[in-house]
Structure formats: C-alpha cells, structure tokens
Write a structure and sequence with these properties.
2 copies of one chain form a homodimer.
Chain A lengths: L1 H12 L4 E3 L5 E4 L9 E8 L16 E7 L5 H11 L5 E6 L2 H16 L4 E6 L20 H13 L4 H14 E9 L17 E4 L10 E4 L3 H15 L7 E8 L5 H18 L2 E8 L8 E9 L2 H8 L2 E2 L4 E2 L2
Parallel strand pairs in A: 3-4, 3-5, 5-6, 10-11
Antiparallel strand pairs in A: 1-2, 2-4, 7-8, 7-12, 8-9, 10-12, 13-14
Helix pairs in contact in A: 2-3, 4-5, 4-8, 6-7
C-alpha cells in the first residue's frame, strides 16, 4: 500500500529526473532510453530508501525496480523497465545477493535474450557478518551496493562498452566490504512484531537490511568499541592493509541521528589511521536503510585512480547529486 | 559529550569543506575567510543535524555555531568564528527565533561592532503552529531556516553587498511558512524522559524542533488528513494563493523513513494542485532534525525569479551539494 504512494510522491518530487512506468513499480530515468549507453538496472524490496529509486538518473542507474517492502519485484516490471531503458548497448543488472533477487534477474536475463539485448549480471555480496558456507546463498548484498551504482553508473555514462562497465563493477565488488549493527529492529508494515527483539540496553551486531537478526547480541558498548569490532571484521576480510586508500560510507539504517553517524565516522577515522589506511572520500548519511531501524553500517571500498575518477564524476539523481 | 565527537567526525569526513576552530564548537568554511564576500553566520543548539554545520561551505554558510544539544552556543565561539570568517564585507547573522539565540547574536553583534565589522541580523520565525501573542517570543524558527541558508548564501556567493544579502534573506523569511508533527518524542541525552509523551497510536500536531509539545494531540490519522490539516494552517497563513509558485520541503525529524516522507510529499502535491499552486522545486529528506524524533515538517517558500535563480546556484557543503 505504501509503496505505490511513495513512488507517486517520488515522481512528483523529481519529475525531471525520474518516471514511474504506468502499471508498474519500476522507476526509470525520465530521459530513458539514452541511446548508445549501457543501461544499468537494479531493484529489490522496498524499505531501503533512498535505495534504489533515489539513485536513478544521469551518471548512476537507468532503472530501479521496487518490490513490496522487503520482497523481490515482479518479472513484468523488470521487462517493462528493460524495454524502456534499452539504449542499444546492452544492460548491466546490479543484484544484491538474495535468492529472490537472483531468481528475478535470471528470468529477466532470459527475457532480455529473447529481445536481443545483451546482459551482464553483477552480484553484490559485501556483508562480512555472514559466513560463507557451502549450500547457502552466501553473503548478503548491503549498503556497499551503492558504490556499484555510482561507479559502474559513471563508467556507463562515460560511454564504456558493456564488458568494460562489468569489469569496473566487478572491481568495485571485489574491493568492497560492509557490516552493520542495530539498537532497535524495524517493523515491517502489516506484521505484528519485528523479526527480532532487543532488550533495553542491548544491541545486535551483524544485522541485515531486512530486519534479519545479527550474529551476536550483547549489551550496548561505547561507540569506539562497537566500531572496533565491526572494523576488525571488515578490514581483516579483504584484507585492507597499510597504504591502502579507501572510500568510507557510514550508512544510517533509518532512525539513527546524523549526530551519531558522525560520531561513528570519527571512530572509523581513528581506527583506520592506526592501521595506516587513508580515507580519500567520505559518505555519512542514509544510503540503504531498513525502514525505521536504529543502527548503522560501515562500508569500505579500496580505491584506485580509475575508481576514484568515476566516483567523482558528475551525477544527478534524487539522492546523490554532484557536479552537474 | 557527543557534540565534540560529532564535530570531530564531521571535520574528518569533510576536511576540504569545513574546519572546527580549535577550542570551540564553531564550524567554519575550510577556506575562510573569503575576501570581499559577506560572511554568513548561524548557530544554535546541536541535535538538528545536518543543520547547521552540514550547510557550511561554498554557496551557503561561512560559519555555524554548535551549542550543546538544544542549548544556545557560547559567545566566545561566536567571536572566534566571526574573526575567522570576516572577509571585509560584513556579516549576516541568521538566527532562529529562540530567546537564547537572540541574546547570543545580540551580544555577538556588539562584539562585531567593536571590531568594526558591519552586521545585519535576520530572524527566522516560520513555525505557524505557534500563535503570535503579545509578551511572548512569538513564532519559532524551524526548517524553513534552511531556505535562508541556501538563498542568502547564494546571494553572498554572487558578491552582493550586505544590505542586498539582507534584503534577499528578508524576502525568503517573508515568503516562508512551516509546520510539523510527531509520532514519537525525542530523548535529550542525559535526561531521563522525553519532554512530552505520546500514547500508542497518538500523534502530536505542531511540535517544535526541541521536543516541545505540539498544539494538539489526537489519534493518528491517514497521511492525507494529517497533511491537509498542516497545509491548511500553512497556506492560509501567508496566504499562498492560486497561481503562486512554491518550493516545498518535506523534512524528516530524525527517525521517519524516507518512504513515509515521499508519501507525505505526494499528499502535499495533491493538496497544492487543488489550490492551483505550482511546485517548482522539491526537497524531501532530513534538513533540520530533532535527534531521533519520528515525525516530519512541511515548509513552503513562495518563489520568484530572483529566489529561484539563487536556489539553483552552485553550492558545496556536507549536506547540500549541487553544480560545483
């Protein structure tokens, strides 16, 4: 119920940037298709705003499918979006690693093939809270996905061909790791209670973006300790090492005051300085939320000259606007 | 305690844009002073992030004083900031209408005079929830203040002299009205309980940005009805009339999902269309918050060619970046 109303509000707020395709929950660039440009399509459940529709526009995504809250979007919307955004240079699907989304974009790929549209798929699985075990879907895609939207979007905007846009996206995925924590769960509309509950003074480390419980529950600790625990997991995973340059995103999950996100960023800065890792770009705010969950996630992207140039290039979307 | 940590995090996140003056809680442009430009100084209690430090940078503010949470900043910080940002063309103080802030900037004006810095003061009092009665401070300054930061900031950036920057700021104030509502109060750090309490399923219409109770409490109603009630107060106050062009800001108070802000924006759009009032620019997000309060405010600015040109001009601050 809330999703169509939200999309209608988004379209009214940003009529020059985005359109919602009639009869669907697909958000596309108002000026789609852009001839000769690789089209970027993403999507997933709603409840993560500004992701994903907020990143549709010049220099980022061409289309974003909005499912019901925390549910994968329907195939019909994917096909409608694809037909609208196809500029003749193929499409990159940016997929967060969830079973439903993987299935959706597999089917969408078949539909694209029938229409003669070349497709590459990039799967984002940046959440280090989830162990990779055989027989599971593996790591979830979380806020680091926004790095892919920005940088692969810039590569496409520059006119790079599909295989090159895919290569850049793959480099971003390889260099990105994330992890989150929560102080309160989120409540999915229509459900009676949250997916997990927290006692007064407890926090949950390693939460997902759909109200999934974390990997551990413990009493709330000072920001420095929480950040240190999360950063240990992230930094040791890639690993990020002394001399690396990184883009840091401190992402609010929905209900956390910006004041607290900056406190967290300060602790991340201290942690990285001790490791000899340099912060070259910073993002502090709400990029991929989980309705009204109180908490945050930290994402690191190991940058190089190519990635930074694309990160800095102009874009104009409802939620990210720079230099144009 | 949290405020110095926050400011340290902000400075680390945006070192090219802002500096925190050592020994103070004053945020200034990293490149201050800008010679020959009117300097804009604002400030107030913390807890409203991204206001005010998030709007310091090219095209907006030169300095922003951060008090303790919901407390007016000290005079020493104002003097330090003023000395740092004075570019020889005078200063405009942008003041939200609260007793403590008014007193602070009156004293700062005296200090400026002693230093030979010409000052004009603009007081923002956009909150239509508060009746104007004799013997009171009158209406509060709330989210509409951000319109003043942007537009007067652009006027100063363009090189206009102090009296002209003041005239533009005055026009913005005259044309701006705001009102808010809340579903949950905020909790000031260090206090045991919130300033007001709401029963399950209740909402508070006309809340302030410091956890002040609203003008009326009632059961939560559908978004369309809430918006209609708030918009009636706003639109009838100026009044905004058929044929007017307006900038609309739907401002989250801290814990409200962006999804809901867009639903609200959609209802604002319907309301204004029925009145024959055109939306020419839209802002949907968190601009002036109240810690983790769940709720939103709506602000309207009646625009004209001069105001729109300044609204659209480039700026580069932590929280608002366009075209540069």
């Amino acid at each position: 119920m809330a999703v169509p109303q939200m999309l209608s509000g988004m379209e009214k707020a940003h009529p020059k940037l985005i359109s919602v395709l009639p009869g669907t929950q697909a958000v596309v660039r108002a000026d789609a298709p852009v001839k000769g440009k690789v089209a970027l399509l993403t999507g997933g459940g709603s409840g993560h705003e500004p992701a994903h529709g907020g990143f549709v526009g010049k220099g980022m995504l061409d289309g974003a499918l909005a499912g019901a809250v925390f549910c994968s979007p329907p195939l019909d919307d994917a096909v409608a979006a694809l037909e609208r955004i196809d500029g003749g240079a193929g499409a990159l699907f940016v997929i967060k690693n969830y079973t439903g989304d993987i299935l959706l974009f597999d089917m969408a790929e078949e539909e694209a093939e029938e229409r003669g549209i070349p497709v590459r798929k990039i799967v984002v699985a940046d959440d280090v809270a989830v162990d990779v075990r055989e027989g599971t879907t593996g790591r979830r895609g979380v806020a680091g996905t926004v790095f892919v939207h920005k940088i692969a979007g810039a590569a496409a905007d520059k006119g790079l061909p599909l295989d090159e846009v895919f290569r850049v996206a793959q480099k971003v995925v390889s260099n990105t790791r994330s992890m989150g924590m929560a102080l309160t769960p989120c409540l999915v509309p229509g459900r009676d209670k949250p997916n997990f509950e927290l006692g007064e003074g407890d926090m949950e480390i390693g939460i997902g973006i759909h109200g999934e419980p974390g990997v551990r529950r413990e009493p709330v600790k000072p920001a420095a300790e929480i950040v240190s625990e999360i950063m240990d997991r992230i930094v040791n995973d890639l690993p990020y090492v002394s001399g690396d340059e990184v883009v840091v995103m401190v992402n609010g999950m929905g209900a956390t005051p910006l004041m607290e996100l900056y406190v967290v960023f300060g602790e991340v800065g201290k942690y990285l300085a001790e490791k000899g890792i340099s912060i070259v770009r910073s993002m502090v705010g709400e990029y991929m939320t989980s309705l009204e969950m109180a908490g945050f996630s930290i994402s690191l992207l190991k940058a190089d000259g190519e990635l930074l140039e694309l990160f800095d290039s102009p874009c104009h979307t409802p939620a990210w606007r720079q230099g144009c």
